[in-house]
Amino acid sequence: LSSLDYAWDEPALPPFVTLTVKGAGSSEIVCSMNDFQDSKQLYYENFIYIAATYTFSGSQEPSARPVASSKDAACAELVLDVSPKTQRVVLKKKEPGKRSQLWRMTGTGMLCHEGSSVPHNPHKPSPRSVDSSLILDIAGLAAVTDNRFEPLMLRKP
Question: Distance between CA atoms of 1 and 144, rounded to whole angstroms?
Fold first, then answer.
């Protein structure tokens, strides 16, 4: 644990600090610098995209096979998306904030699909139930047993 001395810029003003997390579900709390309380907590969602790296950077790993000879693939910015009609997991162009492309990692290492969950108010600290979410999985066991390709799908944990 370390500490750092700090001198207030405006010592005549009340000693309060406003902490804000910006984003789709922004959250804000006001803390008194004279009385720190552990009960005040700032909650926010930290969603991720699962991206096909080659389609963002255009650079390949030396041992990787090229997926396309076209430069278009290198700039396509493809991420995992879930089709609402078929629930199939596909690669689609990244659209910032599109719920069907957003994922979150659980404490047990599962990738939960945000688009198939009921929207959650980030101002509320209630954790989501993993059982009510759908997670990323492979469709069958061939990828494990036969080294064949299997499509990705959503499943209950």
Answer: 46
- In terms of residues, how long is the chain? 157
Strand partners, 112: 104, 135
pTM (2 d.p.): 0.62
Say yes or no: 127 and 51 in one domain. Answer: yes
* Residues contacting residue 33 through CB under 8 Å, at least 6 positions apart: 15, 16, 17
Q: Phi and psi (nearest 5°) for 14?
A: -60, 145
Distances (CA, A) of 82 to 50, 90, 94, 98: 12, 6, 12, 10
Q: How many CA atoms lie within 13 A of 65 on its CB side?
A: 1
Alpha helices in 8-135 (DSSP H): 54-57, 71-74
Which residue do the tokens 């979410």 mark? 133
**How many CA within 13 A on the CB side of residue 59?**
3
Decide if 95 is inside a domain: yes
Per residue in 52-88, pLDDT tens? 988 887 555 554 555 555 556 667 889 999 988 888 8
**Domain shared by 50 and 87, yes or no:** yes
**Residues 81, 127 within the same domain:** yes
- The residue range of the domain holding 101 is 46-56+72-156
